[in-house]
From TrEMBL:
Residues 75-94 are annotated as: Disordered. This is 2-oxo-4-hydroxy-4-carboxy-5-ureidoimidazoline decarboxylase. InterPro entries: OHCU_decarboxylase (IPR018020), OHCU_decarboxylase-1 (IPR017580), OHCU_decarboxylase_sf (IPR036778). One of its GO terms (molecular function) is 2-oxo-4-hydroxy-4-carboxy-5-ureidoimidazoline decarboxylase activity. Keywords: Decarboxylase, Lyase, Peroxisome, Purine metabolism. It catalyses: 5-hydroxy-2-oxo-4-ureido-2,5-dihydro-1H-imidazole-5-carboxylate + H(+) = (S)-allantoin + CO2. It is found in: Peroxisome. Gene3D superfamilies: Oxo-4-hydroxy-4-carboxy-5-ureidoimidazoline decarboxylase (1.10.3330.10). Pathway: Purine metabolism; urate degradation; (S)-allantoin from urate: step 3/3. Its EC number is 4.1.1.97. It comes from Muraenolepis orangiensis (Patagonian moray cod). Residues 83-94 have a biased composition (Basic and acidic residues).
Length: 174
């Protein structure tokens, strides 16, 4: 699907197709739909970034809270969204031994206790060792620093999901 086709989608189809570019936050797609037509995918990405940045800090934290833990209960029970499942698998989080799972659970819990939202990182561009290391490093951030950092990760995840949608369809056309 190219940007022209995206611009032609009805509101319902736009939200159905793009509703999870920000994890479990279809309100983001619902909000930017009215800014069509987008001259490029980059412009759509910018509209999403602007929407997120305009949220109050509580809204940004709400978006973060919609993210599942990495290597958490939802991965074990198979209840992740397909996108998250694929990203966590890409980082090797579905191939950890019991001690690695326990270590990640401990760090995730410590992080959530400190900041009040789950640790978010773009798993597709990372691996399990880097993720565990980043969890430890980012635990040292201030609340405001960490919220801003986590929101940047949400935008990165969103860009890759969007490009995946565009690219997947281009491949289908070949
Ligand atoms: N907690 C967290 O970072 N979750 C996310 N990261 C990612 O790449 N996909 C997710 O669902």
């Amino acid at each position: 699907m190219d940007i022209g086709a995206i611009n032609c989608l009805s509101y319902e189809d736009f939200v159905r197709i793009l509703g999870n570019v920000v994890e479990r936050c279809p309100v983001v797609a619902a909000a930017v739909w009215s800014s069509r037509p987008f001259p490029s995918v980059a412009a759509l990405e910018a509209a999403i970034d602007d929407f997120i940045e305009a949220l109050p800090e509580s809204g940004k934290e709400g978006i973060l809270r919609c993210h599942p833990d990495l290597a958490g209960r939802e991965l074990q029970s198979g209840t992740l969204t397909p996108e998250s499942r694929e990203e966590q698998g890409h980082a090797g989080l579905d191939r950890m031994d019991a001690s690695e799972v326990a270590r990640m659970a401990r760090l995730n819990a410590e992080y959530k206790e400190r900041f009040g939202f789950p640790f978010v990182i773009c798993a597709r561009t990372s691996d399990k060792a880097t993720i565990a290391e980043q969890l430890r490093v980012r635990l040292r951030n201030t609340h405001a620093q960490e919220r801003a950092r986590a929101v940047e990760e949400v935008k990165k995840i969103c860009r890759l999901r969007l490009r995946g949608l565009v690219l997947a369809d281009q491949n289908n056309k070949l």
